[in-house]
Amino acid sequence: MSDLRITEAFLYMDYLCFRALCCKGPPPARPEYDLVCIGLTGSGKTSLLSKLCSESPENVVSTTGADNIRKYWSRYYQGSQGVIFVLDSASSEDDLETARNELHSALQHPQLCTLPFLILANHQDKPAARSVQEIKKYFELEPLARGKRWILQPCSLDDVDALKDSFSQLINLLEEKDHEAMRM
């Protein structure tokens, strides 16, 4: 065997060793999840999701006036792996009561009752905003959601880091469920 071939063979082996030790390829793909985002008109669903995705506010089309489609929410539930429920923590008593009823309904819906919930108490930057503790008590989350996986987080458009943290917590709940399914 000529010296050139031996050198080429060693170079190729060095390349393979280098690839095996240092270059393991691209990072594994993150799992994708199908989530449903629901909440009353004006709660901030579109604005929060747009802010999270770094969308320009000019590109956001308001869905205000969509309360009449609430009865169709359940059509979007099939195939969902998690739920984001956005509520306006500074809303009127009547709207808060309606949001409470809708959240209770979603938590008990057969297609959603086993899914993790991220409940976002939006508009925390407004003076009339209720605290997370007030919302937890008013919505009766402790007794209602006992045994379910849920997170109640305060948020506003002004604090993107807190919003990202909330979604990270939801992803952790989703990944825990994936790991549980693998163990079975």
From TrEMBL:
Transmembrane stretches, start-end: none
Residues holding Mg(2+): T46, T63
Alphabetic keyword roster: GTP-binding, Magnesium, Metal-binding, Nucleotide-binding
Residues that hold GTP according to the record: G39, L40, T41, G42, S43, G44, K45, T46, N122, H123, Q124, D125
The organism's place on the tree of life at top rank: Eukaryota
GO molecular function: GTP binding; GTPase activity; metal ion binding
UniProt entry tagged with the keyword Membrane: no
Family the UniProt entry places it in: Belongs to the small GTPase superfamily. Arf family.
Protein name: ADP-ribosylation factor-like protein 15
Species name: Rattus norvegicus (Rat)
